[in-house]
Structures are given as structure tokens and as C-alpha cells.
Write a structure and sequence with these properties.
Number of domains: 1
Strand content: under 5%
Order of helices and strands: HHHHHHHHHHHHHHH
Shape: globular
Oligomer: single chain
Structural class: mainly alpha
């Protein structure tokens, strides 16, 4: 396991996130001073970095829960690799390289030119990113929708939070490929709501998102199966690592694109979202160490419902603008309700146990009385 969670406080898990926050905010303030040369400009950039960090945390808390769900079954070696290499890929790959790569492809320029464009012409850089929003939303929305539906369309799933929905989905899982059929139907519906080239772009991007999910599942299964054949202890290795990295990328799409509504400076975005990513890492470790997913039985359900909501929102964003604040609050609300439901369930179970113990004591006392 990652570590022993006994006796460790929540704040101890957030130590590195706090350190990264301090460094990031100081760096943001310095960047604000360098770009504007005024105290007000410095304060503005400082504030934007803080807001972006909060936005990333609110959008990615469900990501931490899903990460923990997968991470708890990985070997200690791959857990460590995900929490070291994975965070480097998450912070630098998705928050810096990914936006640059979009501009490189969309504008058909080299990586160095893309960096210069981000530094010298942030407005043009932001315009290219916004123009690429439709294919990104279609790709990321499809991938996340498959992640969420695969969790619920599982005939072995026996714990249900919203029973009347989840029981039907679990029973329907015996029909092979039902989640794929559902996603394809939704792709057709949304493509009909778009016009001309946008409709074609949406369909192709969504299909690529679906194929990416299936490819990751197949490759992950083959890699982990081959590792398992070599050693039973190698369960949950490279395949699970690849799955989590692609999943993190899909979660990041919404935050990266939404960040351009606050600032057009790529480096400020990288600082703000990078701070948020560190909190997601810390929360993931805490969830695994403390066994929170086992203790609160509906927490995973809330996270996967939030993923489904996010995927639908990303689809809807191809038609209308939906503020990222609404997306983040929606996901946080669902997770909060699932946590509250879990606490209520635990209280009921404890009450039943106490009630059962009392009845058992009464029966023993009555039996002893009869014998006397």
C-alpha cells in the first residue's frame, strides 16, 4: 500500500500541496509583476492563480475518488510511479504540453512557435484554443461517458445508491456492448443538433474518444495480463497506469479550456491548474491510505455520477456555453450528497448492530433465567 493512514491527520496529507501552493502563488505574483510592473497587476495574477486552483480542485475531486478506486488495487511499485511520474505528466503534460499541442496541430506551427505565440500573442493563442473546443469536448465527453457507464453497467455490481436506476443498469449489463450503443445513440442525437462541418467534427472526435477508451481497455488488459502471468504480485501495473493517465487527461480538458475564460496567459494557467492537480494527488493518497472508499460505500457512486454529468455537460458545451463554476459545483454537490448518504447508512448499520446485541443479551438472560 501507499502508506499507513492510521494516526495521520488530513493536514499531513496536504503538506506538499500547501508547499506547492505557496511556491505557485509566489511565482504567480512574480509573473504578474514582470508582465504588468504594477502592484494591482501582481495582485490580479495572484488572485487568478488562486481561483484557477479552486476551479481545478472542484472539477477534479471526482477524479481523485476514481484514481483511488483504481490505485488501491495497484502494486506498491506502480502506486509510487503513478504518484511521481503521474503527477509530472499531469502538471506539465496536461497543463502545459497539451494546450501547446492543440495550437501546434490547429495552427500548423512548430512547438517553439507555439510557445512564442503564447508569450507574445496570448489573445491569438486563446482564440485558437477556443476554436478547438468542439472536438476536445466531443472527445473528452465521450471518454468520460464510457468511464461512468462502464461502472454502472456491471452485472457484478451489488451495492446500489440510487437503486431504481442502478439495479436496472446492472441487470442490463448482461447485454454486451449496451453502454457503447447508448453512447453512439447520444453522439447521433447531438450531431443532429449541430450544423455542417461542426456536426462532422463532433462525430469524428466523439468516435475517436470512444475508440481511445476501448483501446486503453484492451491494451491495459493485455499489459496487466502479461504482467500477471509473469508474477501474480504484478497485478494492476502498466495497464492501470495508462488508464489513469488517459482518464486524468480527459478530466483536464474542461479545466484547461475553461481557464482561458479567466486569463489568456498559458503560464498563469499552468501555475493555477498545477496547484489544483497537487491537491488532487494529496486527496488520492489520503483516500487510499484511510480506506475512505470502503468506509463510505456510496462515495464512489457520487463520483461516477459526477463523471456522467460532466460528460453530458461537455457535450452540451458544443451547443451552448456552460460556466465551469456550474460544472464544478454540480460534481461537488453530488459527491457531498453521496457522502451524506454513506454516513446515514453507517449510522443505521451501527444502530442495527447495537439493537441486535441488546436483543441477544435479553435472550441470553431469559435463557439463564429459565435454567435457574
Amino acid at each position: 500500500m501507499i502508506g499507513n493512514g492510521e494516526g495521520k491527520s488530513t493536514l499531513s496529507y496536504l503538506k506538499w500541496a500547501f508547499i506547492f501552493t505557496a511556491i505557485g502563488l509566489v511565482l504567480g505574483a512574480w509573473l504578474g509583476w514582470q508582465t504588468t510592473g504594477t502592484l494591482s497587476g501582481m495582485a490580479t495574477v495572484f488572485f487568478i492563480c488562486a481561483v484557477l486552483a479552486v476551479l481545478e480542485i472542484s472539477l477534479s475531486f471526482d477524479n481523485a475518488i476514481v484514481n483511488a478506486n483504481k490505485l488501491k488495487d495497484m502494486t506498491p511499485v506502480w502506486q509510487h510511479r503513478f504518484l511521481t511520474w503521474g503527477i509530472i505528466i499531469a502538471v506539465f503534460g496536461m497543463r502545459i504540453v497539451f494546450p501547446l499541442l492543440i495550437v501546434v496541430i490547429a495552427a500548423r506551427i512548430g512547438p517553439f512557435e507555439a510557445i512564442l505565440l503564447a508569450a507574445r500573442e496570448p489573445a491569438e493563442y486563446a482564440r485558437i484554443m477556443n476554436d478547438a473546443h468542439l472536438p476536445i469536448a466531443a472527445f473528452g465527453g465521450t471518454f468520460l461517458m464510457m468511464v461512468g457507464l462502464t461502472y454502472f453497467f456491471n452485472h457484478e455490481k451489488d451495492v446500489h445508491w440510487i437503486g431504481f436506476i442502478e439495479k436496472h443498469m446492472a441487470r442490463s449489463a448482461t447485454v454486451k456492448g449496451i453502454e457503447i450503443a447508448f453512447v453512439l445513440l447520444l453522439i447521433l442525437v447531438f450531431s443532429n443538433l449541430l450544423e455542417g462541418e461542426d456536426a462532422n467534427t463532433f462525430v469524428f472526435s466523439a468516435i475517436y474518444g470512444l475508440l481511445t477508451f476501448l483501446a486503453v481497455e484492451v491494451v491495459g488488459g493485455l499489459l496487466d495480463a502479461s504482467q500477471k502471468a509473469m508474477s501474480e504480485a504484478a497485478k494492476g501495473g502498466l495497464g492501470a497506469f495508462i488508464y489513469l493517465e488517459v482518464l486524468d487527461a480527459s478530466f483536464s480538458f474542461d479545466g484547461v479550456i475553461g481557464a482561458f475564460a479567466l486569463t489568456q496567459n498559458l503560464f498563469i494557467i499552468a501555475i493555477g491548474l498545477g496547484i489544483g492537480a497537487m491537491y488532487v494527488r494529496s486527496m488520492t493518497i489520503m483516500l487510499v491510505d484511510k480506506g475512505t472508499l470502503a468506509e463510505y460505500r456510496y462515495l464512489e457512486h457520487g463520483a461516477f455520477y459526477a463523471i456522467l454529468i460532466l460528460s453530458v455537460v461537455m457535450y452540451c458545451q458544443t451547443l451552448v456555453h456552460i460556466p465551469e463554476v456550474i460544472t464544478g459545483l454540480g460534481g461537488a454537490t453530488l459527491i457531498g450528497i453521496s457522502l451524506w448518504s454513506s454516513i446515514r447508512y453507517n449510522k443505521r448499520e451501527r444502530a442495527r448492530e447495537i439493537h441486535g446485541d441488546l436483543h441477544g443479551s435479553d435472550r441470553v438472560a431469559a435463557h439463564l433465567g429459565e435454567r435457574a
